[in-house]
Amino acid sequence: MSTDNSVTGKEILKTTPKESDNTTPKSSEQNCTNFDAKERSKNTAEITKTLPVGSESVAELTSRDVLYTQGCKEMSDYAKCYVGAYLSIIQLTLNKLKLLPRKSVVLQTKMLELEGVLAQIESIDLKADFVYDDDLYAIVREIGKVEDEYVAMKTNVQYKSEADLLQRILKEVGFEAQEQRLTEARRLLVKNFANALDNFNETISDAERRTEWELVEFYERFNAITDFQEQYNYFDEFWPIFW
Questions:
Q1: Please, what is the angle between helix 133-154 and helix 63-98, to 10°?
Q2: Are 110 and 166 in contact (CB under 8 A)?
Q3: Segment 208-213 mean pLDDT
Q4: What's the pLDDT score for residue 103?
Q5: Is the CB of residue 41 less than 8 Å from the CB of residue 147?
Q6: What is the C-alpha to C-alpha distance for residues 94 and 96, in angstroms, rounded to an integer?
Q7: Fewer CB within 10 A of the terminal residue: the chain, N end or C end?
């Protein structure tokens, strides 16, 4: 592991300035199409620009710090795309549900859930350079709960009519197209993170290589996987190394 007097990745992220135009993108496309590999590949010099005057010496910034920061940025960008996609879906779904002349108790409850998630999404500045994971992933978890409940409805005969109605509405609001966009975003996340790992492997010093054996081992395993979906799933194994 890195020495105690090094600048940790988390400290770097805390000093990263946020944009604050408080503007929520009108469509998920604005988030998903902003995944540009050229913009994602940050080197040590770019990252150290976020360090305040009087902070630890730039010389103490390790390859571990740089990789952690790059990983967090990629994760933040993908999560913003994910949340942005659902912003559009939830808005359009709610609009269609509100137009129904009669709504069952189940649908009214589902609408309240969607309105709650929508309010949380709209409270986040999705155009900020970096959205802190505590804020963002709380929303991702809420979206996951709504999805799980919807799946449960589809398998319960009692709620079949409501589930069929929601499925039809999701098709009308372009849910499948959003899913395709998210698949592309996942591909770019994997590609950019793989580039960050390659950069880490090229720049890590011999001394660091001995102490950061877990990251070196992770790089070798990640690099050996050829399927992007498997790499995306393995991406989760990256974070416990830092905890």
A1: 50
A2: yes
A3: 93
A4: 87
A5: no
A6: 5
A7: C
Q: For residue 36, which phi and psi values (nearest 5 degrees)?
A: -115, 120
Q: Please tell me the pTM assigned to this model.
A: 0.69
Amino acid symbol at 241: I
Q: How many helices (H) and strands (E) does the chain have?
A: 12, 0
Residue 65 near residue 2 (C-beta atoms within 8 A): yes
Q: How far apart are CA 187 and CA 29, in angstroms?
A: 16
- 3-class SS at 133? helix
- What stretches of 99-224 show up as alpha helix (H) in DSSP? 105-122, 133-154, 160-172, 175-203, 206-211, 213-224
Quote the tokens at residue 112: 């309240």
Nearest to 198 by CA among 215, 182, 181, 184: 215
Amino acid identity of residue 174, one-letter, is G
Which residues lie closer than 8 Å to 93 by C-beta, 6 or more apart?
Answer: 114, 166, 169, 170, 173
- In whole angstroms, give the CA distance from residue 183 to residue 177: 10
Max Cα–Cα distance, the chain, nearest Å: 69
Give phi and psi for 230, each to the nearest 5: -65, -40
